[in-house]
């Protein structure tokens, strides 16, 4: 990969962007960080809104193009670095299930968890994107119970996405800490890439807090 192909990750510590950084570390991908101090509101400044009008991270730049949305990033990057083995090939029978569970995160889990956290009633089951909260979680738990990963013995990028998400949502009490979810999240958070990013985030967050206080 040439210098022009290096990934730019627009980033803020201790946010969902950490998952994208862990993924880049797992892929062994060359990348640069463009760090936004969200405590100072840098994500709402015109410079970043011109890149991502929603003011969200993670956002990546690559080959002069911008990719937003966590699910898109988790599909795009592993396909860009297939040698890392974190994505099934297009002709692999696991490709469909792999895409299913990545899409399930964005289309079903996130809206369900937000509604649950906000104590909002879901839409009627025939109109809700996730049926209902318990059904959404139950389908995920059944898939993970067969383990150790979503697709069996092989870890994929989908597991990095889900493992980190479950770790966060269980930490804040939005998702129950049942044995299946806890063991699964621990497999991902025990990995060296997650540990490196977490340690770096602690330092970066402290620096941002000091900048705001100063």
Named CATH topology of the largest domain: Glutathione S-transferase Yfyf (Class Pi), Chain A, domain 2
* Uncertain residue segments: none
Percentage beta strand: 5-15%
Determine the N-to-C terminus distance: 41 Å
Mean pLDDT: 95
Helix % is 40-55%
Radius of gyration, Cα only, in angstroms? 18 Å
CATH class of the largest domain: Mainly Alpha
Number of helices: 8
Structural class: alpha+beta
CATH architecture of the largest domain: Up-down Bundle
Q: What does the main sheet amount to?
A: 4 strands, mixed
Family: Belongs to the GST superfamily.
Organism: Bradyrhizobium denitrificans
Protein name: Glutathione S-transferase family protein
Question: What can you see in these coordinates?
Answer:
The protein is built from eight helices and four strands. A four-stranded mixed beta sheet has the order 2-1-3-4. The protein is an alpha+beta fold and 214 residues long. It has two domains: 3-85, Glutaredoxin; 95-192, Glutathione S-transferase Yfyf (Class Pi), Chain A, domain 2. Strand 3 (59-62) and strand 4 (65-67) form a beta hairpin. It is globular, with a radius of gyration of 18 Å.
């Amino acid at each position: 990969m040439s210098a022009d192909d290096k990934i730019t990750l627009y980033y803020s510590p201790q946010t969902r962007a950490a998952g994208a950084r862990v993924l880049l570390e797992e892929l062994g991908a060359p990348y640069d960080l463009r760090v936004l101090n969200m405590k100072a509101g840098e994500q709402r400044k015109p410079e970043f809104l011109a890149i991502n009008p929603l003011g969200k991270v993670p956002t990546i730049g690559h080959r002069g193009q911008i990719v937003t949305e966590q699910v898109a990033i988790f599909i795009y990057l592993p396909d860009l670095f297939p040698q890392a083995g974190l994505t099934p090939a297009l002709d692999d029978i696991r490709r469909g299930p792999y895409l299913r569970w990545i899409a399930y995160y964005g289309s079903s889990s996130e809206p369900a968890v937000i509604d649950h956290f906000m104590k909002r009633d879901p839409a009627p089951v025939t109109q809700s994107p996730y049926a209902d909260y318990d059904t959404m979680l139950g389908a995920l738990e059944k898939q993970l119970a067969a383990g150790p990963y979503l697709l069996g013995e092989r870890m994929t990028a989908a597991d990095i996405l889900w493992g980190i998400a479950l770790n966060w949502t269980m930490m804040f009490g939005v998702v129950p800490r049942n044995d299946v979810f806890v063991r699964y999240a621990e497999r991902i958070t025990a990995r060296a890439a997650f540990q490196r990013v977490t340690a770096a985030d602690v330092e970066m967050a402290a620096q941002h807090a000091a900048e705001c206080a100063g």
